Predict the structure.
Amino acid sequence: MEKLRKEKIAFTIIRIISFSSVVFLLTLLGYIFYKGFGVINWQFLTDIPRNGFTEGGIFPSIVGTVYLIIGTMIFAVPIGILAGIYLAEYAKENRFTNLLRVSINVLAGVPSIVFGLFGLAIFVKRMHLGVSIISGSLTLGILVLPTIIQATIEAIKSVPDTFREASYGVGATKWQTVYHITLKTSISGIFTGIIISIGRAAGEAAPILFTAATFYTRGLPTSIFDKVMALPYIIYGLITEGTFPDKQVPIAYGASVVLLIIVLLFSTVGIIIRLRVRRRKSW
Amino acid sequence: MVKVEVKDLKVWLGKNFVIKGINLEILENSVTSIIGPSGCGKSTFLRSINRMNDLIPGANIEGEIIIDDKNIYDKDINVFDLRRRVGMVFQKPNPFPKSIYENIAYGLKIHGINDKKEISEIVEKSLRDANLWDEVKDKLSENAFALSGGQQQRLCIARAIAIKPEVILMDEPASALDPIATNSLERLIAELQKNYTIVIVTHNIQQAARVSEYTAFLYLGELIEFNKTEKIFTMPKDKKTEEYISGRFS
């Protein structure tokens, strides 16, 4: 009886704790939506900011965030996937590859503000790219690189060895096996990881703080060397540096809702792909 | 005629000395069974014949395996071409997560056959030869994992024979199958023997007796006895062989 009682208590505690995470999430979403939803309308989404960001909309920031996402993907996706393939399929166990693996794990844990400083020092200053879309994309790119590499490795490792054996068994080379069997089997897993990590990066303010973002521009960027407005940064700017909080704080909440929706959209797409693959998967 | 000649083959997997010097001649268009207790090196021996052991880190091989007058461990051997000539069927059915059609077309494509008509013809012929055509002809585009275990294993055989191998290695091909599927697999092996040289590793002594012409008994990495199957089963020369086939140890 004593045992049963203990089990009951343990399960109740576990249940309450796991339930509380849902409560936190819902409270957060509820609060942001409650505060921000009121200001969202068509004009808010499609207009440029007016009167020192006290009126108008956040369109340039949405565009800027989308540009940064695209730029980040262009840099990080090919390198991340190739590095993942190398580490999962080709790299032999030795000191050098162990160092690589450890570095990637460490890199994944580096605070995003440090990436921001790195981007400022290297891309903005040393490479003279200036505060621009390209500097921001490169910075965000190296921020998500470790996550993409890890997602790729994980997806590739989940491909059963029996598939590889079967491929070698009919005389395929290593590359044919990697390309036709391993990658084709794991590609949706890889993309799920990428989508989720990019969605996360899109919401980061710190990496673009010194490398790409600006609080206000006159119009949309016309080249990759332009500064951009971006959602996480204007939220930060409006809350901390706004001179008319009465009008600007609601705009910040509205921008937060839009940013949340963009990030959630990314995660949802990623999760849907994952679920569909899992259902189709039959081995 | 001798198709595969194994000369003093020794295999180490890491520090384990697994195959301790085996000499064996496998005749063309025959079925040769490799039997022996678990861990005696049957699979390792089999995988030496198409150099699948090369893929295991730390594997070390000495000796020769001569197929058609050529040592397959010579430096100038193209191992991918060797594996086309020496096909393999694995213990657990392992189709690719692709359609039935693509499972067979894959081997053709990687060996440079791209003509669609030619591929279709070979797919059909291979499936017929593997006694699977009638069961799958209406669903070639379906995923191979929708097939039953026995059908999957016959698909794997079809995949192996599509690339026109000379030798087919089978590593306990029926161990994951039910008795009915096993029975149809054994009938298939008997048919395939007309055109291919087959080496089959089996745990099931009765299966060796049913399907093979020759039987080799391996014990602790050594070839204890090799003879016509009926001789092995009726008058084994070695005491160990007799004990094994009468089920006194396994």
